[in-house]
Write a structure and sequence with these properties.
Layout lengths: L2 E13 L4 E13 L3 E5 L6 H8 L7 E6 L10 E4 L11 H5 L1 H4 L6 H13 L15 H13 L5 E5 L7 H17 L3 E5 L3 H7 L2 E5 L6 E6 L7 H4 L5 H20 L1
Parallel strand pairs: 3-7, 3-8, 5-6, 6-7
Antiparallel strand pairs: 1-2, 1-4, 8-9
Helix pairs in contact: 5-6, 7-9
């Protein structure tokens, strides 16, 4: 598989009113095309900073972020899914999904056809003309994901997209989002505090240290099961969970000592 993203010895500092904060220290990793990669680490270690660097919202203090072979980030190649679904309540589901297309120029017939296809494929077509308030939390996030997919990004960034949901909905939506991303053959990076979520959804997990973040471990996974929920039943799941939990717990102890 081709490499779609590379972090090459990336450091990042940011300035506060009183001090300069060292956020990332020589971060290096790569993501291959169609991989699902999760990033976990202690709170405040810089996970969202990494997503912002990938999206071109921030620039490295040193080192390079290379997306699709270029260190000049093309934001059109990035799709972003946030903690909140960011749907506009006064627009219909269809109008929310096609919002990004309204801002583009040129022939949009193919992308509008893709939007309709995705709504049908993922059981949302009957809600096409409904307002978001008539949808469940899980359905709203599926709409948000489809809105991102119609723009045909090369890379999806998922910033804790399930954290605002109750546990049962969260498990179901993990399966839904995983199915959509794999079915559409997309590459994705998930930032999460939930170790189980990371293990069940990922091909690879990047474990970060406390700030300034470094890559402490890279764990490649090959759990059996067609869905994240089924992968939780794999015999190696608990061992992997304990390994990551210990690494993160040790980081927190080191930070507080």
């Amino acid at each position: 598989m081709n490499e779609i993203l590379k972090f090459d010895n990336v450091k990042y500092f940011y300035q506060t009113k009183d001090d300069e904060i060292f956020a990332l220290d020589n971060i290096s990793f790569n993501v291959l095309e169609k991989e699902f990669v999760s990033i976990v680490g202690p709170s405040g270690c810089g996970k969202t900073t990494i997503l912002s660097l990938i999206a071109g919202l921030l620039k490295p203090s040193s080192g390079e972020v290379i997306l699709d072979g270029s260190n000049k980030i093309d934001r059109k190649k990035i799709g972003y899914m946030f903690q909140r679904d960011m749907l506009f309540e006064w627009r219909s589901v269809w109008k929310n999904i096609t919002l990004g297309l309204e801002l583009q120029k040129g022939k949009l017939d193919e992308k509008l056809a893709l939007a309709e296809e995705l709504l049908k494929k993922y059981n949302l077509y009957n809600f096409k003309n409904k307002k978001p308030r008539s949808l469940s939390g899980g359905m709203r996030q599926r709409v948000a994901l489809i809105r991102t997919l119609v723009l045909e990004p090369k890379l999806l960034l998922l910033d804790e997209p399930f954290s605002a949901l109750d546990y049962q909905t969260r498990l179901t939506l993990c399966d839904d989002v995983y199915e959509i991303i794999k079915s559409e053959k997309k590459t994705a990076i998930l930032v999460t505090h939930d170790i189980s979520e990371a293990i069940s959804m990922s091909d690879k997990i990047i474990v970060l240290t406390s700030r300034p973040a470094r890559v402490k471990d890279e764990i490649r996974l090959n759990l059996k099961g067609e869905t994240p929920l089924r992968k939780r039943e794999d015999s190696s799941f608990s061992g992997c969970f304990e390994k990551i939990w210990r690494e993160l717990t040790n980081e927190e102890k080191s930070e507080n000592s």
